[in-house]
């Protein structure tokens, strides 16, 4: 809200200490508006106001739900007017809901519409591309709006290429000139495998299978054929995403046996409320690959042909023995419309991977907690027989070049609880090709009055370097980033020693600076500085 300048905020479905967010006046008015100074609109998550009655059980009827939400500070009901319609009108007429609450919400909504120009006399909801069209004739509208403009596609390409994460590589990648490729798996020939559940084709389009998608979604089969035009590519599905079908695994293993390389393309089908294996309302009891995909992967590993495992997924999955036995693992989290080109580029080496994991990848399907933000009791210890250490930690990712970090200098090893630290390091590309490294800064607080995560990310910088090139990075670390919620419920900065870990991932610290906060304990609020700042020098 503060740094991004959001003009609308949506309440969540959750309840805190038994109070649902949609009915929490201390949250939506006291904190958001009175403390943070937000003056935009608050909108309901879909059906969230009705949920005050049907799910949370804190309202006796829909009129009570509407009144509670308005009083809390919700201005707009979405997606319908189930509670803000007739139930609210009757409640106002009966005196159960003050008209002043209606006026307050209307003033905010109308003010925002005026700010956006929606109340201007010349404003029209019809975009210029549809001027003069018959809006009641879908066929007349189709094709008049370009959903896949070149500048959009270029941005999608850049995002996808920077997002693909190379998890492991025994030297098989990048592929030089593969002769025979067995392309196996349920996502190998599925164009929509790059899309998440809120993409239009997966959200709405699946309900209208006869309507064209409207955008180009090349399959990995197609992009690999373009990337390796001289290769012989044999396709075998093996199994479905979640059907558990084993009948195609024999064919897949036969294809692997006749190939020089297997590319196993596994993962998820995005959807909503049970229509997919990943997406809203598609929860997982286990982090094992859906259906029979692990069975397929293990069979391919047994074939004796090197296996490159490619994931097109919405969540991190435990991959079993493939973590150690795959020739390489390429992780992609629904990379968007240019995703398969980006993956093909990583496989060929046309793209030097630089993505880093935004989550940890678990070692086992029941590993909990998987977040890197666990406290000490959440780590491997003698008080539990379970080892939660991830297969690949938060922030992990490999490239096709190498980097060396050196010359750590701590300019200010001591600062007040209202001050800042400054440090610097040099990053050099020691490999033979250009690439990008991601320098991550983690904070470790050895002793605090409240249990803390062992470490937490407080800043990072992407550094792009040519072979042999080096760059000096300077980092300013405000004391505010060491703050946490104290025992009295207020956020504080405590004096004491800290470790600032410059790391390639949450499991790979390269350089560590020990610094000290001095002075009195200090209370901070929403105006605090949120993160470290990196600057790069030639």
UniProtKB/TrEMBL annotation:
<dbReference type="InterPro" id="IPR036881">
    <property type="entry name" value="Glyco_hydro_3_C_sf"/>
</dbReference>
<dbReference type="Pfam" id="PF00933">
    <property type="entry name" value="Glyco_hydro_3"/>
</dbReference>
<dbReference type="InterPro" id="IPR002772">
    <property type="entry name" value="Glyco_hydro_3_C"/>
</dbReference>
<dbReference type="Pfam" id="PF14310">
    <property type="entry name" value="Fn3-like"/>
</dbReference>
<dbReference type="InterPro" id="IPR001764">
    <property type="entry name" value="Glyco_hydro_3_N"/>
</dbReference>
<keyword id="KW-0378">Hydrolase</keyword>
<comment type="similarity">
    <text>Belongs to the glycosyl hydrolase 3 family.</text>
</comment>
<dbReference type="GO" id="GO:0016787">
    <property type="term" value="F:hydrolase activity"/>
</dbReference>
<dbReference type="InterPro" id="IPR050288">
    <property type="entry name" value="Cellulose_deg_GH3"/>
</dbReference>
<dbReference type="InterPro" id="IPR036962">
    <property type="entry name" value="Glyco_hydro_3_N_sf"/>
</dbReference>
<dbReference type="InterPro" id="IPR017853">
    <property type="entry name" value="GH"/>
</dbReference>
<protein>
    <submittedName>
        <fullName>Glycoside hydrolase family 3 C-terminal domain-containing protein</fullName>
    </submittedName>
</protein>
<dbReference type="InterPro" id="IPR013783">
    <property type="entry name" value="Ig-like_fold"/>
</dbReference>
<feature type="domain" description="Fibronectin type III-like">
    <location>
        <begin position="437"/>
        <end position="506"/>
    </location>
</feature>
<dbReference type="Pfam" id="PF01915">
    <property type="entry name" value="Glyco_hydro_3_C"/>
</dbReference>
<dbReference type="InterPro" id="IPR026891">
    <property type="entry name" value="Fn3-like"/>
</dbReference>
């Amino acid at each position: 809200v503060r740094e991004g300048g959001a003009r609308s905020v949506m309440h969540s479905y959750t309840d805190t200490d038994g109070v649902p967010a949609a009915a929490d006046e201390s949250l939506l008015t006291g904190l958001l508006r009175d403390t943070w100074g937000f003056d935009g609109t608050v909108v309901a998550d879909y059906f969230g106001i009705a949920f005050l009655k049907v799910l949370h059980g804190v309202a006796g009827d829909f009129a009570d739900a509407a009144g509670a939400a308005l009083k809390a500070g919700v201005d707009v009901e979405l997606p319908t007017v189930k509670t803000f319609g007739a139930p609210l009108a009757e409640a106002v007429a009966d005196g159960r809901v003050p008209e002043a609450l209606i006026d307050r919400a209307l003033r905010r909504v109308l003010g925002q519409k005026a700010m956006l120009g929606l109340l201007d006399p010349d404003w029209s909801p019809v975009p210029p591309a549809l001027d003069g069209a018959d809006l009641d004739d879908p066929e007349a509208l189709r094709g008049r709006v370009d959903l896949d403009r070149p500048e959009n596609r270029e941005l999608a390409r850049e995002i996808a290429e920077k997002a693909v994460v190379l998890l492991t590589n025994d030297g098989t990648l990048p592929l030089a000139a593969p002769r025979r490729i067995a392309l196996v798996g349920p996502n190998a020939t599925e164009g929509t495998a790059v899309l998440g559940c809120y993409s239009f084709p997966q959200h709405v389009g699946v309900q209208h299978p006869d309507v064209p998608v409207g955008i180009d979604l090349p399959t990995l089969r197609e992009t690999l054929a373009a990337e390796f035009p001289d290769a012989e590519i044999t396709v075998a599905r093996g199994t479905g995403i979640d059907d558990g079908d084993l009948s195609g695994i024999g064919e897949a293993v036969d294809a692997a046996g006749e190939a020089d390389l297997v590319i196993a393309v596994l993962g998820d089908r995005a959807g909503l409320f049970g229509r997919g294996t990943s997406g809203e309302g598609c929860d997982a009891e286990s982090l094992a690959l859906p259906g029979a995909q692990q069975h397929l992967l293990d069979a391919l590993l047994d074939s004796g042909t090197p296996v490159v495992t490619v994931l097109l997924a919405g969540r991190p999955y435990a991959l079993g023995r493939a973590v150690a036995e795959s020739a390489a693992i390429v992780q992609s989290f629904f990379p968007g419309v240019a995703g398969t080109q980006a993956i093909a580029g990583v496989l060929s080496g046309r793209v030097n991977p630089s993505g880093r994991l935004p989550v940890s990848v678990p070692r086992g399907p029941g590993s909990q907690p998987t977040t890197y933000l666990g406290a000490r009791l959440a780590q491997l210890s003698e008080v539990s027989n379970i080892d939660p250490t991830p297969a690949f930690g938060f922030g992990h990712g490999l490239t096709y070049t190498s980097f060396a970090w050196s010359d750590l200098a701590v300019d200010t090893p001591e600062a007040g609880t209202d001050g800042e630290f400054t440090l610097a390091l040099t990053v050099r590309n020691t490999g033979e090709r250009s690439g990008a490294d991601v320098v991550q800064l983690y904070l470790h607080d050895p002793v605090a009055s409240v249990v803390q995560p062992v470490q937490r990310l407080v800043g990072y910088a992407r550094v792009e370097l040519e072979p042999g090139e080096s760059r000096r990075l300077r980092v300013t670390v405000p004391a505010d980033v060491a703050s946490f919620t104290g025992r009295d419920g207020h956020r504080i900065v405590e004096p004491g020693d800290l470790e600032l870990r410059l790391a390639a991932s949450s499991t790979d610290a390269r350089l560590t600076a020990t610094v000290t906060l001095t002075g009195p304990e200090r209370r901070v609020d929403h105006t605090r500085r949120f993160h470290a700042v990196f600057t790069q020098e030639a």
